[in-house]
Amino acid sequence: MAANVIMPQMGESIFEGTITKWLRKVGDFVKRDEPLFEISTDKVDSEIPAPASGVLSEIRVKEGETVQINTVVAVISEEGAAQPAAPQPDVASQESRNSTRLAAQPSIGKVERDEGGQTVRSSPLVRRIAKVENVDLSDLEGTGLGGRITKKDILGYLTERQKVAEVTRPMVQQVAQDMAETLQSGVDRTEVVPMSLMRKSIAEHMVASRRISAHVTTVFEVDMSRIVQLKNQHAQDFLNKEGIKLSYMPFFIRTVSEGLKEFPMLNASIVDTNIVYRKDINIGVAVALDWGLIVPVIKNADEKSFLGLARAAVDLAARARRKRLAPEDVQNGTFTITNPGVFGSLLGTPIINQPQVAILCIGAITKRPVVINDAIAIRSMAYLTLTFDHRLIDGALADQFMVSIKAKLEGWEEKLF
User: Fold this and answer.
1) 110-212 belongs to which CATH class?
2) Which residue of 9, 159, 358, 381 has the fewest C-beta atoms within 10 A of its own C-beta?
3) Which letter does DSSP use for residue 350 in this model?
4) Are strands 335-338 and 358-362 parallel, antiparallel or unpaired?
5) Residue 348: CB partners within 8 Å, gap ≥ 6?
6) 78 phi and psi angles, rounded to 5 deg
7) Quick one: what percent of the chain has pLDDT higher than 90?
């Protein structure tokens, strides 16, 4: 019996993925759960495991091709089963298969109708962009499966509408002049490298978020001396007893999860003109990779112990760097924490991870003189910045949330074991 290998959904707002590499070829025997191929989306680069054991009898999607989620990308047959004469289907067969998949799978994204009665398929993200930018989706020609309008389609449309070429023409002319002068001198001092699939996806996601949300940032200074003392006191015990390195991240995840209980508006989303309150508190933790940035999610963070949070943060970060994240590891985040402070950054104003409405940025923890009770003291201080969506969250609410986070960190009482 054959098993279909499908393109998984790697995030709640992700409807397509690009196969970057096949790790097995047609005719190879594969075991269930061993890495079969690598994919790239705007949330994560990941290795996808085989859904069953058997012989890889057919590869339907080539490296570099982008397809919709739930698309059959390969087939695994039982060992000894007859192999197809040609691993790649002809054009007519592929078109027939695409039509069959489109008819069989649930509609991806809401189906809208224009005045002429034509169907217009798009994702919730595309519809939000269209609403903010006052775009009639029926004017666009979708390049997705079944004519679905993708993020790439609408962002390309907006780029043309804004006449970016007019703005960038002087720069292009300058570059051309510089290149001409370089060629005349006989020395080429430039290098042109195409963006990776992940970098292009990140760029699209960030631009879309800036278009959708009204970004505002508030900055708070927090005395981290108590946290630094606890970390230094228990770091060796964590390493000896639990086998993990204690970082500052679980302290922030704990205080944020408690703060979201107090201020549920920051754990919500906006869908059209409705506010969707998320009952689960799922904290995304940004992980910097050599090839990009991904945000694995700690599910139900408010229900975990401090030790459980520490283990989860270490596990997700390690698997992200090895490309071992599962689809569910990057789905359903409700709030994001990013920590550029580990690289020395004092503060930042990050872009909101859609469809969330806020993101917390942690700056470097450094010793500096501060005034305490009219006396100067040396304390371990850090700047925390909260970027929030002003469509939903007012400044007063954002500051109240940050006051709560600050108080919890400076007056930490929870035991670590």
Assistant:
1) few secondary structures
2) 159
3) P
4) parallel
5) 338, 340, 361, 363, 385
6) -65, 145
7) 52
pLDDT at position 43 is 59
In whole angstroms, give the CA distance from residue 318 to residue 280: 24
Let me know if 394 is a catalytic residue. yes
Q: Quick check: is 390 catalytic?
A: yes
The single-letter DSSP state of residue 241 is: I
The yes or no reply on domain 3-104 and CATH 2.40.50.100 is yes
Asked whether this chain's domains 3-104 and 110-212 adopt the same fold, the reply is: no
User: Where is mean pLDDT largest: 32-36, 40-44, 119-123, 353-357?
Assistant: 353-357
The owner of tokens 């927090």 is 222
Q: What angle do CA 254, 260, 263 make, to 5 degrees?
A: 145
C-alpha–C-alpha distance, residues 206 and 340, integer Å? 17
Euclidean distance between the first and the last CA atom of the chain, given in angstroms as a whole number: 50
Catalytic residue among 114, 139, 178, 394: 394
Q: How confident is the model at residue 1 (pLDDT cuts 50, 70, 90)?
A: confident
In this prediction, residues 250-272 reach a mean pLDDT of 97
List the chain domain ranges. Answer: 3-104, 110-212, 214-410
Tell me which amino acid residue 289 is.
L
CA distance linking residue 417 with residue 289, whole number of Å:
30
CATH number for the domain formed by residue range(s) 214-410: 3.30.559.10
Active-site position among 90, 234, 390, 399: 390
Q: Which whole number is the average pLDDT over 230-243?
A: 93
Query: Each residue of 147-174: pLDDT tens digit?
Result: 778 877 888 888 777 754 455 556 666 7
> What is the DSSP code (8-state) at residue 238?
I
Assigned token pair, 254: 């704990």
Give the per-residue pLDDT at 33. 86
Instruction: Quickly list DSSP for 143-171.
Output: -SGGGPBPHHHHHHHHHHHTTHHHHHHHH
How high is the pLDDT of residue 95? 45
With cut-offs at 50, 70 and 90, classify the pLDDT of residue 104: very low
Pairwise CA distance, residues 44 & 72, whole Å: 20
The pTM assigned to this predicted structure is 0.66
Take residue 263 and report the two structure tokens written for it: 């201020």
Q: In this predicted model, what pLDDT tens digit does every residue of 7-54 receive, in sequence order?
A: 988 765 567 888 989 999 999 999 998 889 988 876 567 888 899 999
Q: Directed axis angle between helix 197-212 and helix 124-133, to 10°?
A: 50
**DSSP secondary structure string for all residues of 105-149:** SPPSS-EEE-TT--EEEB-HHHHHHHHHHT--GGGS---SGGGPB
Strands (E), 182-266: 215-223
